[in-house]
User: What shape does this take?
Amino acid sequence: MIKYKLKCNCCRRSFDSWFSSSLEFEKLKNKKFISCHFCNSNDVNKTLMAPNILSSKKSKIIKIQNKKNQIIQKKIFEFQNFIKNNFENVGDDFAYKARSLHYNDKNKFKGIYGNASRKQIIELLEEGIDTQVFPWIEDKKN
Assistant: This one.
């Protein structure tokens, strides 16, 4: 993939766009498939661009950020495993099941987790039903 800064010769505005290759850009331009994002003109050309070069300082910063992200992701997976092993997954019935537990089955309490919309969560909280939102990341290492 290659990113070009394009400039419209009609409205003189510039914008970025991605292409699979420089050859692909030329093919699309010749077929008049490239148009200005602002005025829709097909009179668009590439402008000069500086290559994106990572300095060693930027590279170190990116490595540190990636390491921090990996640590956070690992913690989230640990919490997810704890939740999966200790709570019942009720899926999309979360709001209904939470109300059932709160109003009817207080003595038979078992923690639950599942999916709820923002509106459902607000309604549960307004009813005094303790609800927490947790980021759920699907494990892509299958």
